[in-house]
Design goal:
By secondary structure, the chain is an alpha+beta fold. The protein contains 13 helices and seven strands. α7 runs antiparallel to α8, α9 runs antiparallel to α11 and α11 runs antiparallel to α12.
Length: 309
């Protein structure tokens, strides 16, 4: 018989009122469960309890000893219950890297489908606010499409601002190195484009109200314009060149893969509003900044993220 002083799991597995079975995890946590839910949702438990019940007991109830730890079993057992797990319950979704293998072991095909669905929804909710955590969810659950989308969003986060969190331990060093390599590769791809300034033609016509890119025949020699590339095929206003320089600095300083953030936008806007050739409106400047960011987005979309598919 098990010791009655052993730790019990949190709700909904902490009450003996309706429980008729105890599941003990490998780390000694006791889950008080309704056996019928397990039998209905798991072929493993259906077969186990078909002709017999466990001989070992805890608190007068039969007890099944699981080889998985309590974090894993909590998620597995919740997926046996009608309410399952919610997409905003990150603790259940990211309990450990072994949840899917446990679901296979306990023959819970429907539970695995619901688990992946909850993880995918949680990932999409975190995509913009916490893309690194979204990446970890995706890699832990084998959702490579979501992992690639999340990795792309991490390109907007400075490397020095990436803080460690508990679930980061769920992926190995190789997975994290792949993410760092991807950041570097995207930055290099953007830098090449910005250095050769083949980005220039993409800015032509982004705003029909003013000519941002001027051909060499109409090149202005005042200090507020500058050449866009070495052969002077195109020229543009200095504030546009400053925007491109800001983007290159973002890569050089490991702040992003070239994306212009709000701080950059403020500096660019300040320079544009002082332009003597053609003072710009904030809306017009935003159009140019968005055009640069969209072009960077196109460039990084062509950089592969190597995963162990």
């Amino acid at each position: 018989m098990s010791s009655d002083t052993a730790p019990s799991a949190a709700a909904p597995f902490d009450s003996t009122e309706k429980a008729d079975l105890v599941v003990r995890s490998s780390d000694g946590v006791h889950f008080f469960v309704v056996k019928a839910f397990l039998i209905y949702n798991s072929e493993f438990f259906a077969n186990l309890f078909k002709d017999s019940v466990p001989q070992e007991q805890h608190g007068g109830l039969p007890m099944f000893n699981a080889s998985e730890d309590s974090d894993t079993m909590r998620t597995v057992l919740k997926l046996c219950y009608p309410l399952g797990i919610a997409e905003d319950d990150i603790a259940d979704i990211m309990g450990c890297a072994g949840i899917r293998s446990a679901l296979h072991k306990y023959m819970m095909e429907d539970g695995e489908v619901r688990y992946i669905a909850a993880g995918r929804l949680a990932g999409f909710r975190l995509m913009k606010t916490d893309p690194l955590r979204c990446y970890v969810i995706a890699r832990t659950m084998g959702l490579d499409g979501l992992a690639r989308a999340a990795a792309k969003e991490t390109l907007r986060i400075p490397l020095r601002d990436r803080k460690a969190f508990k679930e980061l331990a769920l992926i190995d060093a190789l997975d994290y190195q792949r993410l760092l390599d991807y950041f570097c590769s995207c930055g290099e791809a953007v830098t090449v484009q910005l250095t050769t300034l083949s980005l220039g033609p993409h800015l032509i016509g982004v705003n029909p109200n003013f000519n941002l890119i001027k051909n060499v025949v109409s090149y202005c020699e005042c200090p507020h314009t500058g050449k866009l590339n070495s052969d002077r095929q195109h020229s543009t206003y200095m504030w546009v060149l400053n925007a491109i320089t800001e983007s290159k600095n973002m890569v050089r300083e490991w702040r992003s893969a070239g994306y212009l953030n709000d701080e950059c936008c403020d500096r660019i806007l300040e320079g544009a509003l002082k332009s003597q050739c053609m003072p710009q409106t904030p809306a017009g400047v935003r159009i140019v900044i968005n055009a640069i960011n969209n072009e960077i987005d196109r460039l990084v979309s062509e950089v592969p993220l190597e995963l162990d598919d």
